[in-house]
Amino acid sequence: MFNTLDFPPISGEKEDLLRLYCKLLSRWSSEKVRLTGPRDEETIWKDHIRDCLFGLSLLPRGGRIIDVGTGGGLPGAAWAICRPDLEVVLLDSQSKKTNALSSMMVELGLKNVQVLWGRSEEIAKAERESFDLATARGVSELGIVAEYLAPLVKVGGSILAIKGPAYLDEMGKVGDRWNDLGLGDPSVFSYINGDRQGFLISMTKTSPCPDRFPRTPGKAEKSPWWEAKR
C-alpha cells in the first residue's frame, strides 16, 4: 500500500519563476545542451516541472538538500523556487550541464542554489552526512540510488527517489537490507500527473552509513551492495 499525494497549490511569483525556468530549460536544451528529453515548453512543464512538485510536501522544514545527477536541475531547482527557506545543491558529473545550470540560476535570481560539478562519491567524502535530504530523479535503479544518497544524509534526515512503476521490482531486489546503508524501510507515495502515475520512495536515515560507503566511482553499478554477504 502507498499514500497518495495531491498537486500542491502554486501561484503568484513562484509560478512565474517556474514558468521562466521552463522557458530557460527549453531554450538551453534547444541551443546549447540537452537538459531534458522534450524541448517544447508545454511538455517540459507537464512532464518535468509539474512532476517534481508533487514531492514538495515530503521536504524538510528547513536545511540543506542535494539533488544528485540533477541534469537540467530537476527536481532541485523547482523545489528551490517553491521553498526559498531551503539551501539546495544541484550536483551533476557533466560540466556542460552544470555550466548551463549556473547560467539559468543567475537568470532566475535564485540565491538559495549552489551548482556543483562532480560525482556523488566525491561529495560524500567531502561533506559526509551533512545534508537533511538527498534526492535523485531518473538516475538509476532504487538500490543503486540509495547507495549514492545514503552517505550524504545526516542521521534523522532522509533520501527521496522519484521513480516509475519499476520501483516495485527494484525494491524487491534489496529486500530487507536497507539498514545495511543506515536506512529505514521505504515508504511509498503515489501521485497522478496527467495520464502518468509516479512514485516517490522515501527512506529515513536511522543510523550512520558504514564507512565502506561511498565506494569508488562505478562500483555501485558493477557490484550491487545488496548481493554481498552480511
Query: What is the class in the CATH system?
Result: Alpha Beta
Q: Biggest β-sheet, characterized?
A: 8 strands, mixed
Sheet-strand content, in percent, reads 15-25%
Rounded to the nearest angstrom, the distance between the terminal CA atoms is 29 Å
List the domain count as a whole number: 1
Strands, total number: 8
- Given the structure, what is the number of helices? 8
Question: What is the annotated CATH architecture?
Answer: 3-Layer(aba) Sandwich
CATH homologous superfamily annotation: Vaccinia Virus protein VP39
The gross shape turns out to be: globular
**Structural class per helix/strand content?**
alpha/beta
- Oligomer category: single chain
N-to-C series of helices and strands: EHHEHEHEHEHEHEEH
Radius of gyration: 17 Å
CATH level 3 topology: Rossmann fold
- Residues in helix, %: 25-40%
Query: Strands of the biggest beta sheet: in what spatial order?
Result: 1-7-8-6-5-2-3-4
